[in-house]
Amino acid sequence: MTADRIRLGAVAYDPKVVTIWDGFRRWLRPRDLPMDYVLYSHYEHQVEDLVAGRIDVAWNSPLAWVRTQRMAPGAEALVMRDTDLDLTSVVVVRADSEVRDVADLAGRLVAVGAVDSPQATLIPLGLMSDVAVRVRRFDVGVGLHGDHIGGERDALRALAAGEVEAACLIDANHLAFTTQGVVAAGSTRIVAQTPPYDHCNMTAAGPPSPTVRRFCDLLLAMDYADPQVRPLLDLEGLRQWVPGRISGYAQLERAVDRLGFYGPGGEVTADGYQP
Amino acid sequence: MYRLDLGPLGLDRGGHILLERALAPLPVGGHLAVTGRDPALPVHLRAWARRRGHRFVDPPGEAAGGSGPGHGGGEALVVVRGDADERRWAGARRAGEAGRPASRADPAWGLAARGALVEAGGPPLPGADLDRRDVIWSEQAGRLYAQAAANQWDPATVVDWARPDLPDDVEAAVVQTMTYLVENEQAALMVPARFLGRIHPHFREAVAFLATQVADEARHVEVFTRRAGLSGGPPGVSGAGGRASLQSLLDEPDWANASFLLSVLGEGSFLALLSFLERHGPDPVTSRLARVVLADEARHVAFAMGHLSEHVTRRPSERDRLRAALERRHDALATTAGLAPAVHDSLVVLAAGSWEPSAMASGWDAVAALQAEMDMGRRRRLVHLGFDDRQAAELSELHTRNFM
Ligand SMILES: [Fe+2]
Ligand SMILES: [Fe+2]
Fold first, then answer.
1. Which are the contacts of A239, defined by CB distance < 8 A and separation ≥ 6?
2. Which residues lie across from A110 on neighbouring strands?
3. Does the pTM of the predicted model rise above 0.90?
């Protein structure tokens, strides 16, 4: 790998990913930082390539971060989006349900997102690990670590249709789905909310090179007032890049262990997970 | 600390509008205490604030808890105002002033209303290369547009479309005249239509006027076509020379030149022709149509005279360009026949009103007088555009024999 350019990995969960990284690439070039991006169809391959040194940085899901750290303990979370901080997930029931809290869900059927969704499956199931719930998974976009919202939407629809007794999803999607009328506003009731956790980060497998550092400094300098980057930031769902932190992944770590998603060295051990 | 009580209103049913209104006057970093009875409010407020670039303050004692939706009821939730909005609008500029167009329209203003605050970024308007006020706009454009909008007439009711009771050979002269008019009206529609999409919408009065002009011409095509077929026969002939003349109008790529050739000289000449047809039309339909079309054409001529005279007053050298365009067209048409003899003779027959030799002689004189009147009109307009009498006479002579 040459010293003065960056090879970045990203997962193509949506066609807009090309627009976003192509736009960033065009913005970085005149700032003397040639960037190449490599698109993966799922996160596992991206993590393996990052650890193997085939890419310099990876735009990682939280679950991909957890795996990277297990495979490369010196990995660093370099930058994040302002919108990656302090997310929560919720467990919702129908408004007329007799369920009052998580304990009431014992023995009941709970809809979750895709097998590898941190926000709609792993973290909420971690929250309910002491309760013997029955689980129905909505495996949309397996391998995308929950980036595809289809699983959460299907879970909520199944709840509205009376097929399940509860559904798990991220706070922002509950607001979006009730606002858009996927389910009627007020037709669901929130019975549990997870503590805040963090989402994606830009990961390096080890101490970042000076070029990677400069790349991160440029990202951090992107200004929402700049009309060239603003549409890209809007597309990627942030207002500002912020320095990475790793304090917000403990819940996911525990859930991954409890549910046996990855082994201690990052081996994929999840049952029925085929990205 | 500012406060907002949303009452029963949730953020999924419009509560965000009250939130935005409450946050707007706060300084960046200012705190807003939000209360409300929607049970989902703590969850939704957190998600909403994150997406909008504000900061949601974790309620004390709840952060590490997990489980309950985290709102003890009555406790205010706190949102810290972010600066995403300021940043989004930091580079915004107004698209000129609402009341009067700018001397030059910026492609970055795009389709924005004149005077609107335009967010920086977004696609520039491609192809709107007619972006200078002195080329496209005139002080009268707005007034002429209002006049046009108020005077649109309905072809279905503007005349009584009764089949005229004329001798066959007189009807044939009318049909030939109408056939000629239709092809001229088609050209008069296509020329402004081609420029319409190239005018920056900042000059909305000019765009609006030309849109009415195009619609006017569509009506003219319709009513002349309808009169041509009123007695049930096919249309008359279309001479190659006439169409060559019209094609040379379509081929003119420059807006000012095209406007000069089509509207000042062509439509200007047509004013006399339509007035002639109003006077000599052998049936009420022909006379009435000539009258209502004449009123439209007078507006088209007035608009062109307006923007061209303002244009050449500011840049006198533009007169040389107009003259050159007229000379080029004259040279290009030098080898063509001009007005089809069939059209000329039909006009004579209409003016004669009978087949008596003496009537034919006076019909002939009437058409000669028409041509003299067209010439006088062109010279008057050329003088108004700042050409001297001698130049005006010379230039009028160069105008196409086809009238349009
Ligand atoms: Fe016309
Ligand atoms: Fe006209």
1. A82, A83, A224, A233, B53, B82, B84, B87
2. A135, A166
3. no
Chain pair A-B, CB pairs under 8 angstroms: 102
Residues 10-69 of A with CB under 8 A from B: none
Quick one: pLDDT band at residue B73, thresholds 50, 70, 90?
Answer: low
A197 — phi, psi (to 5°)?
-140, 170
**Within an 8 Å CB–CB cutoff, is residue A95 touching chain B?**
no
Could you tell me which residue, B74 or B158, shows the higher pLDDT? Answer: B158
Torsion angle, CA of A48/A50/A53/A54, rounded to 10 degrees? 80
String of DSSP letters for A151-173: HHHHHHHHHHTTS-SEEEEEHHH
Residue A193 and residue A171 in contact, taking contact as beta carbons nearer than 8 Å = yes
CATH for A6-84+198-259 is 3.40.190.10
Residues of chain A with pLDDT under 50: 1-2
The ipTM, to two decimals, is: 0.95
- Which homologous superfamily is A89-193 in? Periplasmic binding protein-like II (3.40.190.10)
Does the structure show a pLDDT above 70 at B65? no
Is A207:A76 a contact under the CB 8 Å cutoff?
yes
Whether B61 and chain A come into contact, CB under 8 Å, resolves to: no
CB-CB: which of B11, B66, B119 is closest to A194? Answer: B66
